[in-house]
Amino acid sequence: MPRKKSLIDLPELPAALAFVRSGKRFLLTSHVNCDGDGVAGCLALQNILRSLGKSATVVLPDPPNPQYDFLEGWAQIETADSQPPASKSKHLVVLDCPALTRIGRIEEYIDKGTKVMVLDHHQDSLPFGHVNLTTPQSSSSSELVYHLGSALGFQLTPTVAEQIYMGILFDTGGFRYALTTPTTLEVGAQLVRAGARLDLVADRLFNNQSLPVLKLLGRALESLQLYCGDRVAVVHLSHADLDGGMDHIDVVNYGLMVQSVEVSVALKEETPRRYRVSLRSRQRVDVRQIAAAFGGGGHARASGCRLEGDVQQVRRQLLAEIEKHL
User: Fold this and answer.
1) pLDDT in tens, 37-58
2) CA torsion 315→255→32→18, rounded to 10°?
3) CATH number (domain holding residue 169)
4) Is 3 within a domain?
5) Are 119 and 94 in contact, with CB atoms under 8 Å apart?
6) What CATH number does the domain containing 254 carry?
7) On the CB side of 143, how many CA atoms lie within 13 Å of its CA?
8) Which among 85, 183, 187, 212 has the fewest CB atoms less than 10 Å away?
């Protein structure tokens, strides 16, 4: 069957097709604290590979967020502490991960005999695979899975369409963020035509929180303070707030609801004095540059990094860097 022309420019698409066709057993993974795009993309690619008669297993560095448990295959996802390292003949596919350092314990699965393919859409993506199907033209890694599946001649099923749709919806914030392109909307239409239940996916993705998590959101909003002439919003959740694994809501987006705010920051204390920092912006500020100053990365409007210290020190460092970009 002749290969369909891709809707976006993917120079390494022929190499990606050869990678898939050359392997029999595949391990699929994503970054630590895997989000909706990584989970959905892994599950969709797993189904595509199995349709070709391949063996495909999803193994993540840590347990996936139960918010995505409505996706078919979610219950079969394995984690690095439950699955022995891959054999030398394994083909490893890393989705939605811009750097090898972000895959955590999955690095233990890589040796000289492991062939690695990367599917990623981050602007700061590093080519750490033998094959790197990477482009910032794509809204999400799940959209890249769609393009790869299409090139392989895969006929969309309702299950795969829904998985890909969920990943795209997650990374585009419901087709609202600047990552959304005309091609993204065209792909979304194809997925709905193939059976993706857009109302169910949106409901489970955006209206699917427990009461404790919603109360956690309330505590985060209570902590919100404005800086830099009301152009920067900062919310803070302590280690005690997050104890019990309730960090399942993206509080950073709420800062941008304040009309004067250009940059929103969320400080989440993962362990005492160690903060996971999320950054979001409107149009003027490239938060990827701010995150990069602290060893992080991401996208122009959504990025992150990690910092150590007490909350005052961490906030002071971030505000000093943000002020350079306002």
Assistant:
1) 999 999 999 999 999 999 999 9
2) -130
3) 3.90.1640.10
4) no
5) yes
6) 3.10.310.30
7) 30
8) 212
pLDDT at 5: 58
**String of b and e for 218-246 (b: at least 16 CB within 10 Å)?**
eebeebbeebeeebbbbbbbeeebbeeeb
Say yes or no: 217 and 172 in one domain. Answer: no
- Quickly list DSSP for 187-228: HHHHHHHTT--HHHHHHHHHS---HHHHHHHHHHHHH-EEET
Residue ranges, the chain, pLDDT below 50: 1-2
Does pTM surpass 0.90? Answer: no
Residue pair 304/276 in contact (Cβ under 8 Å)? The answer is yes
Place of tokens 């909350």: 311
- Site of tokens 């002020």: 323
pLDDT tens digits, one per residue of 222-244 = 999 999 999 999 999 998 888 75
Q: How many CB atoms lie within 10 A of CB 282?
A: 13
Q: Which tokens sit at 213?
A: 């998590």
Residue type present at position 23: G
Tens of pLDDT, residue by residue over 194-204, are: 999 999 999 99
